[in-house]
Design brief:
The structure holds two protein chains of two kinds. Chain A has a two-stranded antiparallel sheet with strand order 1-2. In chain A, helix 2 crosses helix 3. Chain A is elongated. By secondary structure, chain A is mostly helical. The longest helix of chain A is centred in the C-terminal third of the chain and has 17 residues. Chain B is of the alpha+beta class. In chain B, strand 4 and strand 5 form a beta hairpin. Chain B is built from twelve helices and ten strands. Chain B is globular. In chain B, helix 8 crosses helix 9. The chains are: A mainly alpha, B alpha+beta. At the A-B interface, strand 1, strand 2, helix 4 and helix 5 of A face strand 1, helix 2, helix 3, helix 4 and strand 6 of B.
């Protein structure tokens, strides 16, 4: 099938879309699909370098790792190199040393900074803010303004950014 | 004026079209989606859905992708609520969607959870706050794959860390017309951001629409990444406004805008490139108050007039001329007084 846009290349992207309640098919070559912005909103998550990452991995360590396998999901390291996809969370632990140089190369750093998951039983933002407000009143009552300022900053941080610096 | 029309609100919408936050999350105890069997995927969907259903503040409609008609699926992709990839392969995938469609959660796309919050205009803090509050609620109920050194673990190692992609779509006709855009693209890439055509790539972006996103997800907190994106977006918007001021000093700009409007209003054949180029000028004029048209209508037209989409409004393949004719007809109809 020929691309509907350029009418030259072989169409290798096939999509169905709906206009005014009627569905119809679109057939585009990859160049036209890209230039028309199909999938643009979702592509390039992270650096969008999934496949390149595999390439990087392969090059980052010339030593033979053939046969290394994740006990969690059974994925071979070689497979990660070839498709650039991790098999499961455990893969990261198992292949950590192999991954690190490539992660550094991609992100510049390989140390995480950012939000953390909430553990079961931990209180919600709303409850935390309520708690802090009480502490703030108490601190002001005691004229401990340094502490009050700290508490105020924490309340602001939670209410503006969901609590993570 | 333009601003009050675009979905009710929309800060900075002379330049900023919309804002979105994407978060990628996985459940520790299950392999990533590519390694899940169909029954396992269904199990993961059920586990996440149950967790989402316990949220007080948000209520989600739940769709098993497999049970939706083709038309429904495609309609979701059209509204940017799921990725085209997600719509193309539907087995074992599900969607959680709020009534206002501002929050969508794709289940078993590249990761178990792909959360998207999308707001009109410039609303990074609001969008992140919403995304994070949902993320926190879910993380209290689901054991997310998380490592103290690497952050949130994702199927694609280049997304790990915060697993966050924040984006703003910007309309930059003046920076394009004064040839400042290429330099800008290079500059932002050095700042851990990417600036890409929202329709078409790089400096050849159609309609002068560009998506500015963070690219680094490891070694920088969400807050810092958003502040960074925010400050660069505002600087770009300010540069765009300055460039517009300059542009409007030349009488030829207003003339070009009116000519663009005239062509769109009366043309009998119009191709995508010409349409996008002219519509960009019309949007510039609408924001300036020269053209009486609202931005939401312009944005919707830009999506609907793409060549493939045009072909879809009739149930048979169209050749180029037929398509251009149909496009011109639909644009004329939209611009009717």
């Amino acid at each position: 099938m020929i691309c509907q846009n350029c009418n030259k290349n072989e169409a290798n992207m096939h999509m169905k879309r709906i206009i005014n309640g009627r569905a119809a098919e679109v057939h585009l070559c990859s160049d036209c699909a890209r230039s028309l912005g199909y999938g643009e909103a979702f592509s390039g998550f992270g650096l969008g370098l999934g496949e390149l990452f595999g390439e990087l991995l392969g090059k980052s360590d010339g030593s033979a790792v053939t046969g290394a396998q994740c006990p969690g999901c059974g994925k071979l390291f070689d497979e990660i190199v070839s498709d650039g996809k991790m098999g499961c969370a455990e893969c990261y632990g198992v292949f950590y040393d192999k991954l690190l140089p490539s992660l550094r190369r991609i992100h510049g750093k390989a140390t995480y900074i950012g939000s953390k998951p909430v553990k079961n039983g931990e209180i919600s933002d709303g409850e935390r803010v309520e708690q802090l407000k009480k502490q703030l009143s108490a601190a002001i009552e005691e004229q401990n303004f340094e502490l009050a300022a700290q508490i105020r900053d924490e309340i602001i941080a939670i209410s503006t950014m969901g609590g993570d610096a | 004026m333009c601003a009050k029309w675009y979905l009710g609100t929309g800060a900075q919408n002379d330049v900023v079209i919309n804002t979105s936050i994407h978060l990628a999350r996985n459940i520790r105890t299950y392999p990533f989606p590519a390694r899940l069997s169909l029954p396992e995927k269904l199990k993961v969907n059920a586990v996440i859905k149950n967790a989402a259903d316990t949220m007080d503040e948000y209520s989600f409609n739940h769709y098993e992708m497999k049970t939706l008609s083709q038309s429904e699926v495609v309609s979701l992709a059209e509204r940017h609520l799921v990725s085209p990839e997600f719509a193309s392969s539907r087995d074992g995938r599900a969607l959680l969607l709020t009534e206002d469609e501002a929050v969508s959660i794709m289940l078993n796309e590249e990761d178990h959870i792909r959360l998207q919050v999308m707001y009109a205009g410039f609303a990074l803090d609001d969008a992140y706050r919403t995304a994070r509050s949902i993320d926190r609620e879910l993380s209290g109920k689901l054991d997310f794959a998380f490592d103290d050194k690497l952050g949130y673990l994702t199927q694609d190692p280049t997304a790990l860390g915060t697993g966050m992609k924040a984006s703003v779509v910007l309309h930059l006709p003046a920076l394009v017309s004064t040839s400042q855009i290429t330099k800008l693209i290079t500059t932002v890439s050095k700042l851990g951001l990417s600036l890409r055509g929202s329709y078409g790539e790089g400096a050849a972006a159609k309609g002068d629409m560009f998506r500015l996103s963070n690219t680094i997800t490891l070694g920088i907190s969400e807050k810092a990444a958003i502040e960074n994106l925010k400050s660069i977006a505002l600087q770009i918007a300010a540069q765009e406004r300055t460039a517009r001021e300059e542009l409007f000093k030349a009488p030829v700009t207003e003339d070009r805008i009116y000519r663009a409007y005239g062509v769109l209003k009366y043309a009998r054949l119009i191709d995508t490139n010409e349409f996008m180029e002219l519509m960009s000028l019309v949007r510039l004029g609408a924001v300036k108050g020269i053209i009486n048209m609202d931005c939401a209508q312009i944005e919707a037209l830009m999506i609907h007039m793409q060549p493939a989409t045009i072909s879809l409004s009739v149930d048979r393949p169209l050749d180029r001329i037929e398509r251009d004719k149909l496009r011109a007809m639909m644009v004329r109809r939209a611009l009717k007084d």
